[in-house]
Amino acid sequence: MGTIARYLRIMASLARYTLAREMAFRGNFLVKVSVEVLWLLILLAFYRTIYARTDSVAGWSEPEYLFFVGCFFALNGLIETLFLENCNEFAELVRTGDLDFLLLRPIDEQFLVSCRKVDWATAPNVIMGGALMLSALGRLGWPLDAGRLVGFVVLFACGVLIAYSFMLMLTSLSVYLVRNQSLMEMWWLFSSLARYPKEIFAGTWAEPIGRFFTYLVPILLVVNVPAATMVRALEPGLIGFTMVATVGLVAVSRWFFRRALRTYRSASS
């Protein structure tokens, strides 16, 4: 517990430091936040247009799908706030040799590489996503169900960890390839897949693709399982698989990251 508390204090200090830097350029911060708000409004207008012509999409009613969109926005916003900018900069640290200065510090390398900055401009996405989920639950007339709520929180955390694990593995490849622009474009592909219900792949020529990204590269689990657990019928098998996949991917991504660091040639070598 003492180690966890220490890392939480460090992360809080890093968050305060990055917020102070962000506030030094308030105009830039407000523009970035405005872009995120505009993006959500465009998505909502698009989905509203679709549901004006149909009652459901792949079995999801409009309020259920709005909850799904809110869940995606909150989860993706959390990933972007805590990890994305750090992972994007990792290749530059490797190329310039500045990674040496991080590795010399008496702290876990993975924590420092992936959590040293907080992108506060994307943090409002978490709030907007949460507000959209509450609005959708209100339209569903959702009664308070403590069991579903606890399940949602646990599976939401699993979704964050799965997404983080994939991002960390893509980032680690920078040690071997030096440049990671194309690798991070693959992350955007993954996040685009996570934006849609897995049911859209069922019963079509794309069903093998859906199964591949559900069971082999389980990026479709990230948003689908927590959202469905909250507003649709429970799928115990998929819930159990999500938890197992989370533990496995966290372990594999850490192993891969540390293996990549062992092959890193420092600027002084």
Cα Rg: 20 Å
Helix run count: 12
SSE order, one letter for each helix or strand:
HHEEHHHHHHHHHH
Quantity of strands, as a count: 2
Beta-strand portion reads under 5%
The side-by-side strand order for the widest beta sheet comes to: 1-2
Mean pLDDT: 87
Which class do the helix and strand fractions yield? mainly alpha
Instruction: Give the CA-based shape.
Output: globular
Provide the domain count. 1
Let me know the largest β-sheet: 2 strands, antiparallel
> What is the share of helical residues?
over 70%
Low-confidence stretches: none
Head-to-tail CA distance between termini: 37 Å
Structure, described:
The protein has 269 residues and is mainly α. It has one domain (2-262). The protein is built from twelve helices and two strands. β1 (56-57) and β2 form a beta hairpin. The longest helix is centred in the first third of the chain and has 35 residues, at 62-96.
Nutshell version of this structure?
This protein has 269 residues and is mostly helical. It has helices spanning 2-23, 26-51, 62-96, 99-103, 109-115, 124-140, 146-172, 174-177, 181-194, 207-216, 221-231, 236-262, and strands spanning 56-57, 60-61. Helix content is 76%, strand content 1%.
Write the layout of secondary structure elements.
Blueprint: H1 2-23, H2 26-51, E1 56-57, E2 60-61, H3 62-96, H4 99-103, H5 109-115, H6 124-140, H7 146-172, H8 174-177, H9 181-194, H10 207-216, H11 221-231, H12 236-262
Antiparallel strand pairs: 1-2
Helix pairs in contact: 3-6, 3-7, 3-11, 7-9, 7-11, 7-12
